[in-house]
Design goal:
- The strands form 2 sheets. The protein has a 3-stranded antiparallel β-sheet with strand order 1-5-2.
- With 137 residues, the chain is an alpha+beta fold.
- It has helices at residues 3-17, 31-41, 46-54, 60-79; strands spanning 20-27, 88-97, 101-106, 112-117, 120-128.
- It has one domain (19-130): Ribosomal protein L22/L17 (Ribosomal Protein L22, Chain A, Alpha-Beta Complex).
- The longest helix is centred in the middle third of the chain and has 20 residues, at 60-79.
């Protein structure tokens, strides 16, 4: 690895130390359906987001709820204190497409239709709210 690449990699690694996140990989749900759920909680306070996910009718909400609980636990582990109401919020959520399984379905006249079984990766970032009292205008 060259010197510039090594410095850039170290800078990225240092910036990532401040972030708290959880990843969910190879979820057998289409990314479009997962984005419907993740867009609901983007920017919300974490305990309010847990309530929204708990009572959502979407199948993907169960998996995102578990992922959010994992991100909260990661934050608590990193900061060595418990998460309180109003302190943490979902700063960003990424839903990316993962591998697609292709299957064939018999069709009329000897043809075959392709079935695409999609999957996705979800990355959820949690951040603590900054105190506005410390900022001077």
């Amino acid at each position: 690895m060259g010197a510039r690449k090594k410095l850039a990699a170290q800078a990225r690694k240092e910036a990532k130390k401040d972030l708290t996140f959880a990843k969910l990989r190879n979820v057998p749900t289409s990314p479009r359906k997962m984005r419907l759920v993740t867009d609901m909680i983007h920017g919300m306070e974490v305990f309010r987001a847990l309530g929204v996910l708990k009572f959502s009718n979407k199948e993907a909400s169960f998996r995102v709820e578990k992922l959010l609980r994992s991100a909260i636990a990661n934050w608590e582990q990193k900061n060595e204190r418990k998460a309180e109401a109003g302190l943490l919020y979902v700063s960003s959520v990424f839903t990316d497409a993962a591998s697609t399984l292709y299957r064939m379905r018999p069709a009329p006249r000897g043809r075959g239709f392709r079935i695409r079984k999609r999957s996705n990766h979800v990355t959820l970032f949690v951040s603590a709210k900054e105190n506005n009292a410390n900022q001077v205008n």
